[in-house]
């Protein structure tokens, strides 16, 4: 592909309360990002007709609502499954599952939540998405932090083991343009 556009969903109610996972709605600020996104995308992609890929979770679908393009939701784009820790804050996880909390800190890439997934698991389930992406043009992906880190690492040629620490802030559109000599990157942050 010539370029790929990536964004996390707008701020969710869970982002506000510090809870992980879940299927929360976007917050008021998240709504503001959703409303601004078409304009930011236009700045970056001009008149290109994009196709939007979201996860099946409400926050990515709500974030894409105002984009005037065809949309497709993929289960494979859902956030890393945090199993028994879903809907907890990091402080609650540390309190209830101290050994797990430490194990994740020691090896974040391989650590698999009880009843959930690791980053390594996410990389594997993203394979069909990456394959489809490689043979598509003009795709904008609206997804989640962990998933976006893995897609980003893939296109930037970064070792997947480093994906858990990639910087992908909220309310930022990332444009990646794979080239023979490496992937070019531009970021547009929505000031909201
Ligand atoms: O907090 C938002 C979130 O997308 C959670 O749903 C998810 O568990 C987490 O980020 C992933 O980030 P990390 O791997 O750094 O915990």
UniProtKB/TrEMBL annotation:
The active site is at residues 9, 95. Keywords: ATP-binding, Hydrolase, Kinase, Nucleotide-binding, Transferase. It comes from the Eukaryota. One of its GO terms (cellular component) is cytosol. GO terms for molecular function: 6-phosphofructo-2-kinase activity; ATP binding; fructose-2,6-bisphosphate 2-phosphatase activity. The keyword Ribosomal protein does not apply. GO terms for biological process: fructose 2,6-bisphosphate metabolic process; fructose metabolic process. Substrate binds at residues 8-15, 59. In the C-terminal section; belongs to the phosphoglycerate mutase family. This is fructose-2,6-bisphosphate 2-phosphatase. It comes from Aureobasidium namibiae CBS 147.97. The chain holds residues 235 to 426 of 461 of the full protein.
């Amino acid at each position: 592909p010539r370029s790929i556009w990536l964004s996390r969903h707008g701020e969710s109610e869970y982002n506000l309360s510090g809870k992980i996972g879940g299927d929360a709605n976007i917050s008021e600020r998240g709504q503001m990002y959703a409303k601004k996104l078409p304009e930011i995308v236009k700045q970056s992609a001009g008149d290109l007709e994009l196709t939007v890929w979201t996860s099946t979770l409400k926050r990515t679908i709500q974030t894409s609502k105002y984009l005037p393009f065809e949309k497709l939701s993929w289960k494979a784009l859902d956030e890393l499954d945090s199993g028994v820790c879903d809907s907890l804050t990091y402080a609650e996880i540390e309190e209830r599952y101290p050994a797990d909390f430490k194990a994740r800190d020691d090896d974040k890439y391989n650590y698999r939540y009880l009843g959930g997934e690791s980053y390594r698991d996410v990389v594997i389930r993203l394979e069909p998405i990456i394959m489809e992406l490689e043979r598509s043009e003009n795709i904008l992906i609206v997804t989640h932090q962990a998933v976006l880190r893995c897609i980003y690492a893939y296109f930037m040629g970064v070792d997947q083991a480093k994906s858990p620490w990639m910087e992908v802030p909220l309310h930022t559109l990332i444009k990646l343009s794979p080239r023979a000599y490496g992937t070019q990157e531009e970021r547009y942050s929505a000031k909201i």
